[in-house]
């Protein structure tokens, strides 16, 4: 007699034979599922005898489902005889039992559900039924079940995650379990990308060496991406970027990578700069890093941010004013992209259109200061010294000279890589800023003088009782003197920069028409008051794309006056 299809094979049949001959049989969580399926296959029900094997296995399974560890063991044994276990609903009962326990209060499994409250001694030690119990046992974290379920195979684990999600488990806990499971079964996920092309290529070759392993890991990664909660901010951005990097290595499907890019783009402000440095794994590797991937992520972030701002404006128009700090994430992303551009700028294979497209995707109002984009432009110009003058002016249009800090303006005024036209603009806006500061200082000085006179009159009238306003006026006056010193230092620095620039221009100009030649290169033109006399004022007008209309540069006499 041959029984090839018996569940559990010869091992299960041997246990069934022992049961039939009255040999004492020990049921455990590891053999009860196989015995239950084998008994069903052999029709060992109550029709052929009371207390038959089916009834005894069912009674023991009910005890197994009440224990977390035994339920895990029983579910693992279902994988070998999955079709039989599915027909008897053993798999679904195990998953429901595990999901119910995972969603319940974990303290219920270390303390009795009902019964007397634990007694506390005078020293603070807790007792239950006279047994010493550590107070630490009550502090169970939400991730207590992650490690146990991570040993399950993907089909059963997927069903368990879907079940706990349907029971209302928090999305962040589900995401934590998926992260734990992915780190255990995806070896590439924990490895950082290397900037060394040889090291990274060797890593890819090792993964591609085993085709079956690559296929299994690709399928596992795609399933995990589908199971991740869709709520924004639930899954860490760092983990999503690592998934994206791994999906590139494993050549995952286009929909999987697009899903990850959209998830990252929706919470790009939470990313770190080192995470965005994804190596380029395309067939035509032009650049060291995958610039196109970051471009798509940034475009999706801008789309989500634009839609969010439109919703806020709609609510405001309806009369529902919503307090929102929508500019803050955009500013964080602007700083992040500026830092990313500075990292990829030294790549000689990075084309100018890609650099411009990535930098121009950030609106101008998102950058409080343009120091970051100026640094990236300076690094790019240094690495791409063969750019023409028109290309240099084109890339410099990405920054706003008015939004450079004092340190960046000082560096830009002495930067030989920048076009002369940009240097002139930097000096002009620095001079304009200085004039504004001087005007505010003069206004402050007038207020100090008025307050000084008023405080003097009040002191003469009120005597010692009015000494406080006089002290405040003196303090304000001392603060003004400090501003005066700072202003003098800035004026001195600006005069030195203008003088050095003038000396450099004088070296270039050797003929009478030299000024016209230099200004013609800068895209400027000269207007003289009287053609018969020497020009006493030089009026510089820029082109329409650079708004510097009819603004005069100061002469030496005006410098001394100022």
UniProtKB/TrEMBL annotation:
Transmembrane helix is among the record's keywords: no
GO biological process, one term: protein ubiquitination
Region listing for Disordered, in residue ranges: 535-562
InterPro entries per record: NPH3/RPT2-like, NPH3_dom, SKP1/BTB/POZ_sf
UniProt superkingdom: Eukaryota
Pathway(s) per entry: Protein modification; protein ubiquitination
NPH3 domain segment(s): 143-433
Coiled coil: 484-511
Swiss-Prot/TrEMBL keywords: Coiled coil, Ubl conjugation pathway
Family: Belongs to the NPH3 family.
Name used for this protein in its record: BTB/POZ domain-containing protein At5g03250-like
Taxonomic classification: Eukaryota, Viridiplantae, Streptophyta, Embryophyta, Tracheophyta
């Amino acid at each position: 007699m041959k029984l090839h299809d018996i569940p559990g094979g010869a091992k299960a049949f041997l246990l069934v034979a022992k049961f039939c001959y009255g040999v004492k049989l020990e049921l455990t969580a590891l053999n009860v599922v196989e015995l239950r399926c084998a008994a069903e296959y052999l029709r060992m029900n109550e029709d052929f005898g009371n207390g038959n094997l089916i009834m005894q296995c069912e009674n023991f399974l009910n005890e197994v489902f009440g224990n977390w560890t035994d339920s895990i063991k029983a579910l693992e044994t279902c994988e070998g005889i999955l079709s039989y276990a599915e027909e008897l609903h053993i798999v679904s009962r195990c998953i429901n039992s595990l999901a119910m326990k995972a969603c319940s209060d974990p303290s219920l499994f270390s303390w009795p559900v009902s019964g007397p409250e634990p007694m506390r001694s005078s020293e603070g030690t807790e007792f239950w039924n006279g047994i010493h119990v550590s107070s630490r046992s009550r502090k169970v974290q939400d991730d207590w079940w992650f490690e146990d379920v991570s040993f399950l195979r993907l089909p059963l684990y997927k069903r368990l995650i879907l079940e706990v999600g349907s029971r209302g488990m928090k999305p962040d806990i589900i995401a934590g379990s998926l992260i734990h499971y992915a780190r255990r079964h995806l070896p590439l996920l924990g490895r950082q990308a290397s900037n060394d092309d040889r090291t990274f290529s060797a890593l890819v070759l090792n993964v591609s060496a085993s085709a079956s392993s690559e296929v299994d890991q690709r399928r596992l990664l795609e399933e995990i991406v589908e199971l991740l909660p869709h709520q924004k901010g639930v899954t860490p951005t760092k983990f999503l970027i690592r998934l994206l990097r791994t999906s590139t290595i494993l050549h995952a499907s286009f929909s999987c990578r697009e899903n990850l890019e959209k998830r990252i783009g929706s919470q790009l402000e939470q990313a770190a700069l080192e995470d965005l440095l994804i190596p380029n794994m395309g067939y035509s590797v032009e650049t060291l890093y995958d610039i196109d991937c970051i471009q798509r992520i940034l475009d999706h972030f801008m789309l989500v941010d634009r839609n969010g701002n439109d919703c806020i404006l709609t609510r405001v128009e309806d009369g529902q004013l919503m307090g929102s700090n929508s500019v803050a994430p955009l500013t964080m992303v602007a700083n992040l992209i500026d830092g990313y551009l500075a990292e990829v700028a030294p790549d000689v294979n990075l084309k100018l259109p890609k650099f411009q497209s990535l930098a121009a995707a950030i609106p101008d109002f998102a950058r409080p200061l343009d120091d970051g984009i100026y640094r990236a432009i300076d690094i790019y110009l240094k690495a791409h010294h063969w750019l023409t003058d028109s290309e240099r002016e084109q890339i410099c249009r990405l920054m706003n000279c008015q939004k450079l800090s004092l340190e960046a303006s000082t560096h830009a005024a002495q930067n030989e890589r920048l076009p002369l036209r940009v240097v002139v603009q930097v000096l002009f806006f620095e001079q304009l800023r200085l004039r504004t500061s001087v005007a505010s200082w003069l206004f402050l000085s007038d207020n100090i003088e008025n307050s000084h006179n008023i405080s003097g009159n009040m002191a003469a009238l009120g005597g010692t009782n009015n000494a406080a306003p006089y002290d405040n006026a003196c303090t304000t006056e001392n603060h003004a003197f400090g501003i005066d010193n700072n202003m003098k230092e800035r004026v001195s620095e600006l005069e030195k920069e203008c003088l050095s620039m003038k000396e450099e221009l004088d070296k270039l100009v050797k003929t009478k028409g030299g000024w016209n030649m230099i200004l013609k290169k800068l895209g400027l033109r000269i207007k003289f008051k009287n053609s018969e006399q020497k020009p006493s004022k030089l009026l510089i007008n820029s082109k329409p794309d650079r708004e510097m209309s009819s603004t005069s540069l100061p002469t030496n006499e005006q410098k001394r006056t100022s």
